[in-house]
Amino acid sequence: MKKISSGKVRDIYEVSENSLMIVVSDRISAFDVIMNDLIPNKGKLLNQLSEFWFDYIKDIVPNHIITTNFDEFPSEFRAEEFRGRGMLVRKLKMLPVECIVRGYITGSGWASYQKTGKVCGIELPTGLRESQKLGAPLFTPSTKAELGDHDENISFEKAAELLGSDLAEKVKSKTIEIYTKCADYALTKGIIIADTKFEFGLDENGELVLGDEVLTPDSSRFWPADKFEVGRSQDSFDKQPLRDWLSANDYKDKAPVHLPQKVIDFTLNKYVEAYEKLTGKNL
Predict the structure, then answer these.
(1) The CATH number of 94-227 is which of 3.40.1190.20, 3.30.470.20, 3.40.50.1000, 3.40.50.300?
(2) Helix, strand, coil percent values for the chain (each to nearest 5)
(3) 233-265 pLDDT, tens per residue?
(4) CA-wise closest residue to 195 among 247, 120, 264, 259
(5) What is the C-alpha separation between 59 and 272, in angstroms, rounded?
(6) Are 33 and 253 in contact (CB under 8 A)?
(7) pLDDT value at position 282?
(8) Residue 146: what pLDDT?
(9) Alpha carbon separation from 238 to 64, 123, 235, 258 (Å, rounded)
(10) How far apart are CA 253 and CA 275, in angstroms?
């Protein structure tokens, strides 16, 4: 099969004129750098968590999945290495904008607010504290960077220039609606979704379709609700522990030869815990 893309985590193969196979690897990246070590079974966790969310929000927006059933995969992908980590999907014309939504002020948003009182050009009330819940979720789009480059935050007005005003408004509305429904659900499972990003495309009829991944620890900040405290950075179920170790050891722009086993194990355990809490299933 023709491999048409190999990203930080996902490999994409062309199956037919109208369909693709997405395979989720065990690779992990941080600060836009792919690590040399794999996180065992991470790809299965991400793939099956996305599948869970795609199904949960199918009433809000259609998605790109044709099947996640291993027995219905093209014969080339009916090998055990692909079980649980593949999706046969519709080809879409992907939009050139990543749809980021922030429910809490943290990370780069918090850094920007401290300097300017704004997040991605959006003026916020004075006196906000780190990790505080925002009055309403913020839609803060970014452009998609090439592999190895950094995404660039853009204003909604710029997104409207790229997409057209009607499509930009629809994408913004759907992004916030999906985030709100899923964040409310996650809270009942003891997880705060602080922020996340979605990717949309258009199908052959020009209809808006949700693609890529949905609400995984790679694309979101998950915090344990029982440890949440405004005014500080939070514990997390995502790859923040990996980022913290890299930062502490001067690896923000490069990968170490190997990650310590304890960092690999701790990161995997966080992914497993988030998956099991949200889906109620064991991997």
Answers:
(1) 3.30.470.20
(2) 35, 25, 40
(3) 999 988 878 988 999 999 988 999 999 999 999
(4) 120
(5) 27
(6) yes
(7) 85
(8) 62
(9) 25, 28, 9, 20
(10) 29
